[in-house]
Amino acid sequence: MARESFKERIAEAALDTLHRRGFNATGIQEIADAAGVPKGSFYNHFASKEAAGVEALERYWISGLHLLEILSDIREQALQRLRTYFARLREIAAERNYNTGCLIGNFSIEMADHSPAIGAQLHKLLAKWTAALEACIRDGQEDGSIKADLDPSMMASFVLNSWQGAVLRARADKNGSSFAAFDAIMFAVLRA
Question: Are residues 30 and 84 in the same domain?
Answer without folding.
Answer: no
